[in-house]
Specification:
Length: 209
């Protein structure tokens, strides 16, 4: 099976201290700020659900926690068993680090945190991603492509665009369709072929008058 280049890049970044952030971008379609603002109390590992409610992003005067700009940005995301397992392992590792550091650990209850529990800045996350990619000898790509890859894979696997819209937090489905318009022609061809398979199986001849 041929994997998108972004997936190959993600695998190359497994040794990065911020791999969990990259995994969430690719597996959920969350925005960078949403990943950086995600707290453990918004992650239900038993049910496999993440609640997106805030974003930690640069506002012009510095990094701040912000509520979603639209109601669509506030959403619940199902995550796969593999992602749940990765998050459990990450949480356990983080807990051991917290115990080791003691009072030096700044407890913000963050899923993605620095080595002392603080918020990770977006530009530092991008720098970490670029370093991991370069060490693997791969061509550099924008970290944001991981979110796009999530949407593209879902569309190509036949997931309804409405579901993709909801996962990405787009306020209108037209945004999703316009952004991923290059994927849609392939979906239409697949749909047409599926209909062709259906009608070609009908062998009843048409009688002549």
């Amino acid at each position: 099976m041929c994997h998108p280049y972004e997936v190959i890049t993600l695998r190359a970044a497994t040794s990065s201290q911020h791999y969990t952030a990259f995994l969430l971008l690719a597996s959920t379609g969350m925005r960078v700020g949403e990943v950086l603002g995600l707290r453990w109390d918004r992650v239900d590992l038993d049910k496999g659900v993440i609640s997106v409610e805030v974003s930690y992003s640069y506002t012009g005067s510095g990094y701040e926690l912000e509520a979603p700009k639209t109601e669509a940005g506030r959403r619940r995301l199902d995550i796969s068993d593999g992602v749940v397992a990765a998050l459990r392992a990450h949480k356990s590792k983080q807990a051991k680090l917290r115990l080791k550091l003691g009072e030096k650990w700044e407890d913000n209850n963050l899923v993605v945190a620095t080595g002392t529990g603080r918020f990770v800045l977006g530009h530092n996350l991008r720098k970490s991603f670029n370093v991991a990619v370069e060490r693997a000898g791969l061509k550099r790509i924008p970290m944001y492509n991981l979110r796009h890859t999530h949407a593209t894979i879902m569309l190509r696997r036949g997931v309804h665009p409405k579901i993709v819209q909801e996962r990405l937090g787009h306020s209108d489905i037209s945004v999703t369709l316009n952004t991923y318009s290059q994927v849609i022609p392939g979906l239409q061809a697949a749909a047409a072929n599926s209909l062709d398979d259906l009608f070609s199986s009908i062998q009843t001849p048409i009688s002549k008058a």
